[in-house]
């Protein structure tokens, strides 16, 4: 694996956070709500937390800032994003990056944890997993969480299109909000622009090539709230619902039975 200089990685993660905030302007508020919920739910100062689709570790780092006794296992398949995270968080106690595909059966066992996780979190990541694969992801998660374990998914999840009137209003609100935000035409760097800039940086070439071959972004395969709730209930989570919300930006929480 290619090792990146911390300064290089820090620059790219700063740009990553900025482009993510372009899509989710209240991203930090959602992070805060997620970590509040973890603190309130786990009941111990040293929780074991899984970060699903961790990217460069933006959420994992913030979680450890707040709960320094935690252990966070950060899971993703993207070699470039994980290399950025490893470089920036090199030597940090309590953070382990693990390359696993959450769509594949058996990923939970391959973690080889020494105890069941207290909680799992994810942010702006699981929408790219299709409906059938999402059931695999959540089914595996249920196996590795302790009884009463908490799952939190922060993402843009829309009203189901089986309610067409509400879905149309949901879309209209999002479009009007976006139009107001960018009325002056000053748009931040977006997802595609960020990755094009990465591809042009020679320092990242060795990491970006395998990413283009094996990872990539698959779009919004499961963008409806109902798809996630149904997959969670099928996996054995007995409670699932929105814990925090701003428009279609939601924090979906689910609990396993105690």
What is the fold's blueprint, element by element?
Elements: H1 6-23, H2 27-42, E1 48-52, H3 58-66, E2 71-76, H4 79-88, E3 95-99, H5 107-110, E4 117-123, H6 131-144, E5 145-156, H7 164-181, H8 191-199, H9 205-214, H10 225-235, E6 239-246, E7 249-255
Parallel strand pairs: 1-2, 1-4, 2-3, 4-5
Antiparallel strand pairs: 5-7, 6-7
Helix pairs in contact: 1-4, 6-10
Domain Methyltransferase: 49-149
Organism: Actinomadura rubrisoli
Keywords: Methyltransferase, Transferase
Q: Number of helix segments?
A: 10
Shape: globular
Count of discrete structural domains: 1
CATH architecture: 3-Layer(aba) Sandwich
- Output the structural class: alpha/beta
- Please give the radius of gyration in angstroms: 18 Å
Task: Characterize the biggest β-sheet.
Answer: 7 strands, mixed
- Number of E-type strands: 7
Kindly report the CATH topology. Rossmann fold
> CATH H-level name... which superfamily?
Vaccinia Virus protein VP39
How far is the first residue's CA from the last residue's CA? 41 Å
The fraction of residues assigned to DSSP E strands is 15-25%
Strand line-up across the major sheet: 3-2-1-4-5-7-6
Please give the CATH class. Answer: Alpha Beta
Order of helices and strands: HHEHEHEHEHEHHHHEE
GO molecular function: methyltransferase activity
Keywords: Methyltransferase, Transferase
GO biological process, one term: methylation
Organism: Actinomadura rubrisoli
């Amino acid at each position: 694996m290619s090792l990146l200089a911390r300064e290089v990685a820090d620059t790219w993660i700063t740009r990553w956070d900025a482009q993510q905030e372009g899509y989710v302007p209240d991203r930090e508020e959602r992070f805060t709500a997620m970590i509040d919920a973890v603190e309130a739910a786990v009941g111990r100062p040293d929780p074991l937390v899984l970060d699903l689709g961790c990217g460069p570790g933006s959420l994992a780092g913030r979680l450890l800032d707040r709960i320094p006794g935690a252990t966070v296992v950060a899971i993703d398949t993207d070699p470039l994003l994980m290399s950025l995270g490893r470089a920036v968080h090199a030597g940090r106690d309590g953070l382990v990056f693990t390359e696993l595909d959450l769509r594949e059966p058996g990923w939970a066992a391959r973690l080889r944890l020494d105890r069941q996780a207290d909680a799992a979190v994810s942010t702006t990541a699981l929408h790219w997993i299709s409906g059938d694969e999402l059931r695999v992801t959540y089914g595996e998660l249920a196996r590795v969480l302790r009884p009463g374990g908490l799952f939190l998914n922060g993402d843009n999840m829309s009203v189901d299109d089986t309610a067409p009137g509400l879905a149309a209003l949901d879309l209209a609100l999002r479009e009007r909000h976006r139009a107001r935000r960018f009325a002056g035409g000053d748009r931040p760097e977006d997802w595609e622009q960020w990755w094009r800039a990465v591809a042009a940086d020679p320092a990242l070439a060795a990491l970006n090539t395998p990413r283009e071959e094996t990872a990539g972004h698959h779009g919004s395969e499961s963008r409806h709230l109902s798809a996630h709730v149904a997959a969670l209930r099928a996996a054995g989570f007995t409670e699932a619902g929105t814990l925090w919300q701003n428009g279609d930006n939601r924090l979906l929480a689910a609990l396993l039975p105690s």
